[in-house]
Amino acid sequence: MTDRLVVGTRGSLLARAQTQWVMDRIAAAHPGLELRMQIISTAGDRLKGALPEIGGKGLFTEDLEKALLDGSIDIAVHSCKDLPTRLSDGLALLAYPPREDPRDAWISADGKPFDELPPSSVVGTTSLRRQAQLLLRRRDLTFVQLRGNVDTRIRKVHEGQCAAAVLAMAGLIRSGLVAHVTHPFEPDVMLPAAGQGALAIEGRAGDARVAAYLRPLHDEPTGTAVECERAVLAGLNAGCRAPVAVLATVGDGNLHCRALVCDPRGERVARAQAIQPVPDSAALISDIVNQLNAGGAADIIAHC
From the candidates 82, 104, 207, 263, which is the catalytic residue? Predict the structure, then answer.
């Protein structure tokens, strides 16, 4: 047995920050374990176009999964919302650390809240989910694609490329950039993406040595909530183009889930909500998917 773990990650500021966070906690739980970060360039990092137009899901994970399968890394640290609902054969999600704030954040150039945004403003976001939910509240908005590291997107806002942008609170917190947040959006206003705010640590299925090292990092409520959200996505058979939002939480022994599917123009929306005891999560997932489909989700997704 070799007391060493090679940890794979993308090379972005956020990816490296959250991977170092994971490595620090593994090291604290296992003194003497050698840890090495391996930067891997992914297809998502190399592309130039907008994610919804090219493919989205899997673009940030496929190269990391290949490295796991060929043995060049032992684990991969992912932003959970980047993960496809189906992993490559031979791989498994071994741990979910405690979830960071899952909400979306409003960052405006002038410090004004979303409710004070001038008419016909331009908002920076590549996310159809965010665009659709903003259009549900403000039909006059237009959007510009913002790509790059979190700090690059914030700089583009302050350079005047848009009046404001929407980013994930978790990424801003982990990157040390939360001071730039004008305000977070509560889930009643903007429901986050499945897995937002959560990290997922992927490894080879059946690798008992690595699984043992990761066990102290796993947070059961986070795992329960995120697996529920991913199961809703899988049940909808929703691709990366469909604006699907879902947030599950665990409390008092119950699993609570809210979800919506909205067309990119913000004209049609299907909503769902359910609560069940944690052991009945399968029934809750089925209920959420059925509610969404009854509200027209399948048709919305088919036309995205």
Answer: 82
